[in-house]
Specification:
Bound molecules: adenosine-5'-triphosphate, magnesium ion
Helix content: 25-40%
Largest sheet: 6 strands, mixed
Number of strands: 22
Strand content: 15-25%
Distance between the termini: 21 Å
Number of domains: 3
Shape: globular
Structural class: alpha/beta
Number of helices: 19
CATH superfamily of the largest domain: P-loop containing nucleotide triphosphate hydrolases
Radius of gyration: 23 Å
Amino acid sequence: METILELKNVSKSFGPVQVIKDVSLKVHPGKVQALLGENGAGKSTIIKMMAGVYQPDSGEIIVDGQPVRFPNTKEAEKYGIATIYQELNLVPSMSVAENIMLGRTPATGGLVNFPELKRQAQEALDVIGLKVGLNDVVGDLGIAKQQLVEIAKALSMNARLLILDEPTAALTSKEIDQLFRVIDHLKTQGVGMVFISHHLEEIARIADSVSVLRDGQFIAEVPATTPEREFVKLMVGREIDEQYPRVKGDIGEPVLEVHNISHAQHFENISFQVHAGEILGIAGLVGAGRTEVIRAIAGADSYDSGRIVVHGHLLPKGNIAAAIKRGIGLVPEDRKNQGLILDAPVSDNIGLATLHSSGKWGLADRGGQRRRAKGVAEKLKLRMASIDQPVRDLSGGNQQKAVFGRWVMAQSQVLLLDEPTRGVDVGAKVEIYNIINQVTAQGGAVVMVSSDLPEVLGMSDRVLVMSGGKIAGELPPTASQDDVMSLAVANVPDNVATAPTPNLRTLEI
Ligand SMILES: Nc1ncnc2c1ncn2[C@@H]1O[C@H](COP(=O)(O)OP(=O)(O)OP(=O)(O)O)[C@@H](O)[C@H]1O
Ligand SMILES: [Mg+2]
């Protein structure tokens, strides 16, 4: 079979730590090669070597049968290699059009040709049928739309090898369908793709062949039709019995009471209670107002009317410090922008919520903090070289675990989780669920917003479904995914509920 790109026995170390060991891999035209492995297994590092972000220490990159070197990403782009990174790479303060055309701004006589810039950017959006304004500021878009803008951008570069590092992590099922239609079309055009996802059912749907990595080593290459249990065994090295190990305990008194809160444009008349020992799931479509509600509870945003009470105490509006004092912890959906200080060490990131309270006589207890952070990291099996490593250098899933770890360390009594396992591998998910179980077993109350329907149904004791800023209904965990979806679209106007159809005619490779 013809090969677009081949990695031959590549290895890569960061400092003393070897993270890729002698890995070989081929990508063929018109085929999707999936990379599968636990958090920190080395998937992103592999694709960054294909894209010119990192250079292998040894081994070869071969394109069209010729050894090549990619000293930088521009060089890889010249060979038609386009990459969508796991962590979004858009400039939040710039417009959609500027982001798509970044580095390729059309100019006439030294001046930016804005009409042409907009025309090309619009064409890129049309390819995936994305309806956003060209002048919209990217930072104001939801994370799903930002992801699609990034995909539109990559596709517009006439890629022959498209690398997608967890492109579906922040997308809804409709948006995933849309992306997969685009991928299917690209296959017919002979584009080769590398696809990374922690959702095994997606791999079966879209990939042709799967390379499994463990601890930076190549384990096996198997067909995408391999049963999921086999995939798990290959990547984790053991079987996982229970994917959603919810342990129900006694449900106690209300811990968190939300009384009729409203925030213009965001949500309306939201009321619910969460009891000691309970996990309340919140399902709904992206844009249903789920994130806004839990941000309001966490004091991250204010609201217009209503009351929030924790353990009988009224919470002041929009006051994060007061919320933390009452034992509220928020794991936000956008870990990179809202959750982490990327250049600070893992220990500081995990200890962020407790640094002040753990100090004696007003002095921050740094040694103690570091020790406790280490304990939490071990509990979460966080994969890192050292607790003093900047969080930026952790793999995506391990960054997510670090945000989660912060509130475990703070022993939050009210844990607000927004897509808590996004980007987390199947084994580590179970570790996170077990820790959530411990929180409820100790009388904590948990609110879990999740777009992962099996997760929200598998781990919650009750599920609220939000739609168009309102609560559309409450379901028991025995409800079906279809039950959730029919409530989720209850208050959504048609134009939002139906995903735009991709306009594949404008796609030219
Ligand atoms: N710039 C860096 N400096 C130091 N270590 C790094 C750097 N980049 C990655 N690593 C380490 O290399 C290992 C592999 O990371 P990588 O991001 O490739 O994992 P991954 O398979 O993509 O995981 P995930 O599923 O969590 O995204 C991790 O242990 C990570 O901490
Ligand atoms: Mg990764």
